[in-house]
Amino acid sequence: MFSKESHRRSNRRSYRKAKQYKYISNGSSTSTSSATDEGSNGSSSSDDYKHYGFRKGEYIKDYKIRRHISDGTFGRVLKVRRNWKSYAMKIVRRNHAESAQQEADILFYLKKKDLNRYFVEIIESFYHRGYYCMVFERLGPSLSDMLRLNQNRGIPMNLIRNISKQLIKSIGLLHDTKLTHTDLKPENILFSRIRQLQKQNDLYLPADNRLKIIDLGGAEFNDEDHNCIINTRQYRAPEVQLQCCRWDQKSDVWGIACIIFEMYTGHLLFQTRKNEFEHMALVEKITEQSFPHWMASNVKGTLKHCFNVKNATNGKYYIWPQGTTTKESILKVKNQQTLREMILDPLLRDLLVKMLEIDPHKRISCSQALDHKFFIN
């Protein structure tokens, strides 16, 4: 492990929370903040909170700027070229340079382990005029892009099996290095080739199925002081939301299961946003499970008052709905189908049931998931 960089790990917390943009793909729909026109200049201010001001045709080191891709909370992403080959360059705002170095450290670490076959490859990093720059290989559209283009209709089973196997294998290898990704979602899964998605039989499908995973800025080693809340809510494991134990690599498994379900149906498994009370009610309804006593007994945060471990109701410790719950939310949970009702394929259903065990101690690992009959058959 790269111990000389370990002192920077704690600075990554705010970096993970705010980093909302994707910097590798073509940039057609990946930025969550306003982006400038393709050839426009950025702000020329040297203020730490400003983006790097660039000029089209300008050289940064030996990279020539071709166009703007996207802007994000932590920096600006540009398409650059060197020796007739294109790359994606992320130029980080000055006040976040140290945090960004942690992501680069992890990517260089994975590259040294020869895992850049599965995760985005970082080419180099350096400082330019006081700004920290990271150069990446350019990749293709994201899984999220493909699902969006298919208008939430899901994708063919053979492609689900192919993508799921690659994803589980890649994250399993990451887990072997004692790392947890912590932010798995379709936006962070990119097709390896820059080619656009092709329309076949009224569906947009990749010309090349090979994947790479991005956004390692939130990845944490097993021996790190784990942040309380990780993941985007819809892909967040219950033990993380409840803060009832020290989460581990099994939280990634939960996120992968949510992604697989999304490929099958075309929509989110847990369709809830800011309502954590509704989210936990949906977890019980969809999985047809109840939170075990040990989890209910160790809940922290705002959800603590929603659990009564002394007086279980029909074997349930989670008290929902409560007096403040809206009628809309109650109706939403009541009408929610279970996983068994939504997944018709028996082998896929069995795999997801095992990956979506509420109790992380009972949830299967990535290596166990790869041995499931869904992939063997």
Tally of separate domains: 2
How many distinct beta strands? 12
Range of helix content: 25-40%
Count of alpha and pi helical runs: 13
Reported by name, the CATH topology of the largest domain is Transferase(Phosphotransferase), domain 1
Mean pLDDT: 88
SS-based structural class?
A: alpha+beta
- Biggest sheet character: 6 strands, antiparallel
CATH architectural label of the largest domain = Orthogonal Bundle
**Strand composition percent:** 15-25%
| Rg calculated over all Cα atoms | 21 Å
User: What are the low-pLDDT stretches, counting only 5+ consecutive residues below 50?
Assistant: 1-11, 13-46
Q: What spatial form do the alpha-carbon principal axes imply?
A: globular
Order of helices and strands: HEEEEHEEHHEEEEEEHHHHHHHHH
- The N- to C-terminal Cα distance equals 38 Å
Q: What's the CATH H-level superfamily name of the largest domain?
A: Transferase(Phosphotransferase) domain 1
Strand order of the largest sheet: 1-2-3-4-6-5
CATH class category label of the largest domain: Mainly Alpha
